[in-house]
Amino acid sequence: MAKILMEEGSRNVRLGTLIALMVEEGQDWKQVEIPAPDAAASSVSPPATDSDAAPVVSPPAAVPATLPKPATSGPLRLSPAARHILDTHGIDPKLATPTGPRGLITKEDALNLLKTSPAPKASPATAAPAALSPVLSPAAAPPPPGSRPNIPPLSVPGKPGAPGTFTEIPATNVRRVIAQRLTQSKTTIPHAYASVDCDMAAVMHLRKDLAKEQIKVSVNDFIIKAAAVTLKEMPEVNVTWSGDGPRALDSIHISIAVATDKGLITPIIKDAANKGVQEISANAKALAQKARDGKLLPEEYQGGSFSISNLGMFSVSGFSAVINPPQACILAIGTSRPELRLCEDEKTLQTHQLMTVTLSSDGRLVDDELASRFLDKFRSNLEKPQRMALAC
After folding, report:
1. Cα–Cα distance for residue pair 364/350, rounded to 1 Å
2. In this structure, are strands 245-248 and 239-242 parallel, antiparallel, or unpaired?
3. pLDDT tens track, the chain, 392 positions
4. What's the rounded Cα separation, in Å, for the pair 146 and 117?
C-alpha cells in the first residue's frame, strides 16, 4: 500500500472512485499513473497530461458536428458501470442505444456512445479532483407514476425539510451498544412467543388494602414478584445460554426495562424471589431513578437472569419484546382492560380486569411446552398474590 487517497470514515464516496494506490516493491507511488474513475472508461481514454489532468476521450476523425438524436424515451434504465461512465464524461444517457434486457443501457452501450461523442468541456482545475473526491448530487426528480425507478432514491445532506435531504444524528455509545445487542439477539437467538391473559382483580384489591396502610406498591412490583416466584418453582427456566450450552443459575435476578433519554437500560432487582413486594418496590424506584440520572453501576445492570418490559402505562394492549442475551426469556406486559366473560355457571356475565403478557423465549433453552407451563404458573401466582408469601 503506497498511498491512501480516501481516509477511513469518508462518506458519499461514489462507486469506482480511486481510494488507494498499490505499487511494486521499491517503486515510488508518484511514478504510478492514476487511472480514470472507471476501468472500462479509462481503457478508451488517453493518459493525462500536465495541461489537462482529467481523462478525456478524443473523438475520431469522422465525428458529426452535432450530437446524435436521443435514442431512448421514457424512464431510463442503466447498469451501474454505464451510469458511472456517462456521468464521468458528462454525456446524456438518452443518447445511448440500449441493447440490454428490457431496454437496459449496458456498459458496452456507454462505451460505444463514448467513442462517437465529443469530449466534454472541463477545465483542469475543476476536472482533476473528480476522480478523488466524493460528489454530492441533487436529489433526482421522482419517476412518473407506475414506472420502475432506474436507481435507488438519492439523499444528500442539506437544508432540513428539503426534498431528498436528511439530517445526520450522531449515535451515542449507549445507542451503539443497544443496537449491537439487539442485532445480536434477533440474529443469533431463535425467538419463540406465547401469550396469556391474567385476571388482575385480586392484585387491584390487594393494592387498595395496602394503600390504606400507607404502603404504596405498583402493579409492576407484583409482576416482578410473581415472575421471581415462578422461576423459583421452575428452575429449568432460570437459565442462560453460553457458547458451550445451557447454564443453570443459582440466583434469581430480575432485570426491569427502564426508558431513559439515552436509551433503554435494564437495572436488576437481585434475589427478587426472597423479597417482599414492598422491598421490591423500593428497589425498583431507586434503580429507575439512578438509571435516568445515568448513575447506575455496572453490577446494577449486568448479570440478570430474566427480564420484564412493561408498556402498560402507555396503554399498549400487548407486544413482543426482544430477548436480552444471554438470558433465555423476557416478559412483555400490556395494559389491563375490563372485559366481560361468562362465569363458571355459564349463565351470568362478569367484568374481569385482564392483562395480556407475552413471553419471548429462547427456543434452544425453553421449548413451547415449557414456556406454556411457565405462563400458566405465572398467571396462577399473579391471580392469587397471597400465595407469593408477601413480606410487606
Report:
1. 40
2. antiparallel
3. 778 888 887 877 888 888 888 887 777 767 666 655 544 434 434 444 443 444 444 444 444 444 454 555 567 788 988 888 888 888 888 888 898 888 889 988 888 888 887 655 444 444 444 444 444 444 445 555 555 555 545 555 556 666 667 778 888 888 898 999 999 999 999 999 999 999 999 999 999 999 999 999 999 999 999 999 999 999 999 999 988 889 999 999 999 999 998 889 999 999 999 999 999 999 999 999 999 999 999 999 998 999 999 999 999 999 999 999 999 999 999 999 999 988 877 778 889 999 999 999 999 999 999 999 999 999 999 999 987 754 44
4. 33
Report pLDDT for 59.
Answer: 43
CA distance 284 to 96: 69
Is residue 93 within 8 Å of residue 151, measured between CB atoms?
no
Instruction: Report how far residue 344's alpha carbon sits from residue 359's, in angstroms, rounded to the nearest whole number.
Output: 27
CA distances from 46 to 22, 35, 36, 230, 297 (A): 21, 10, 10, 78, 65
Q: Directed axis angle between helix 368-383 and helix 219-233, to 10°?
A: 130
SS3 labels along the chain? CCEECCCCCCCCCCCCCCCEECCCCCCCHHHCCCCCCCHHHHCCCCCCCCCCCCCCCCCCCCCCCCCCCCCCCCCCEECHHHHHHHHHCCCCHHHCCCCCHHHEECHHHHHHHHHCCCCCCCCHHHHHHHHCCCCCCCCCCCCCCCCCCCCCCCCEECCCCCCCEECCCCCCHHHHHHHHHHHHHHHHCCEEEEEEEEECHHHHHHHHHHHHCCCCCCHHHHHHHHHHHHHHHCHHHCEEEECCEEEECCCCCEEECEEECCEEECCEECCHHHCCHHHHHHHHHHHHHHHHHCCCCHHHCCCCCEEEEECHHHCCCCCCCCCCCCECEEEEEEEEEEEEEECCCCCCEEEEEEEEEEEEEECCCCCHHHHHHHHHHHHHHHHCHHHHCCCC
The CA distance from 367 to 223, in Å, is 22
Closest-CA residue to 17 (of 29, 44, 31, 35): 35
